[in-house]
Protein 1
Amino acid sequence: MTDDAIALMHLAHQLHRSLDRRLQGDFVHPKPPEAQIVALWQVRQSPGMTVRELADELQMQPNNASALVTAMVKNGLLTREPDQRDRRVVRLHVTEQARERTDEVQALFSGYLEAALGELGDDERAAVHAAIPALTRIARHVRDGRPPRDE
């Protein structure tokens, strides 16, 4: 394992944990499990997706995604709506309550990161900005198990 791979692994974990801990202290509502937050962001990004599509995006077994969706519907975070063309297909949508709460989480996360970026010098901020496309490709590679490709 290369030093860069180890450093990136530790950095990703540290950043994730730090964001999560800060959120626990600042989010005024009970914090939903991480799987629910990620599912809400995914459904919000792709309204009308199916449970199968959500499972694929979250890299979950379909039955686990179905259980997650059922809990989220019960908690008023998602709705299930029949497809207009094929009534056998059910489409997922984020509720207004979930939209407001994901906006709050996003604002908190963005605020934490913007404050940290503000402490960097111009060259460091430029380096972070320049690294984002490569880091995105690395994340896709790790998720998909395929080599990163130019996009």
Note: The CA atoms of residues 122 and 128 lie 10 Å apart.
Protein 2
Amino acid sequence: MSDIQSAEGSGATALKEIRRIEAGEVGLIESDGNAWVAHITPDKVWFEGLYSQGEGGAVSFAQYKLAVETYVRFLADPERKPIEVPFPAE
């Protein structure tokens, strides 16, 4: 949540990175934010903390894409209504 703070700014940047990976323009993007570095590849995304906020982990690219798209959609909604989506298995 702290690394994507708005739909227009950091959210738009995250969606652009996803599109670049999907288009095959790049094979790895290291996207750092306020607390985490996301290492984005066409297959998986893993996270490394920039500080001592906890241990990172990994998700599939599909899971990451769904989470980012949903969160950016939530941030763009002025009412911030809940959005429920099925989270895909790896």
Note: The chain has a mean pLDDT of 89.
Protein 3
Amino acid sequence: MWMLSKEVQITEVEGPTTAGTSAIESTAIDISNYDGCAIMTTVATKTDSTNSNIVAVYQSSKATLDNSTETLLKEYTVANNNLTVLLDVFRPREEYGKYIIVRVTRATSTAVGPIYAMRYAGRVKPVDNTNVADNGIYSAALINQEDAS
């Protein structure tokens, strides 16, 4: 039986933030031993220009962005209020490093929801997402009784 909650490692890499204009940067996401990583966050206010409220995903050899070791993989300019953005990085190139880092650039005052990383296709299974203390996420497997036997 295939269950998504046992196939992905979900981590909150940045908590929700109140309205502001400073950029938000996630903690580094180690993608070693995973084929992909989907990033998901919600941005409260749409942009009025092309240089604000942008969700960008970088790959880096370091655990922080320093404008020298990272490669921009994708960026998305938020075009709707309360838009949830999902950016999926599949089989990133090893020469760019083992970390994924998310930056949300806010030029207009806006709140940003938590940033989640969903690493998938891991080399080690099963994945356990049930430890709320470690990742801030509660997960439960709900099984159809007919399938449980």
Note: The first strand starts at residue 8 and ends at 14.
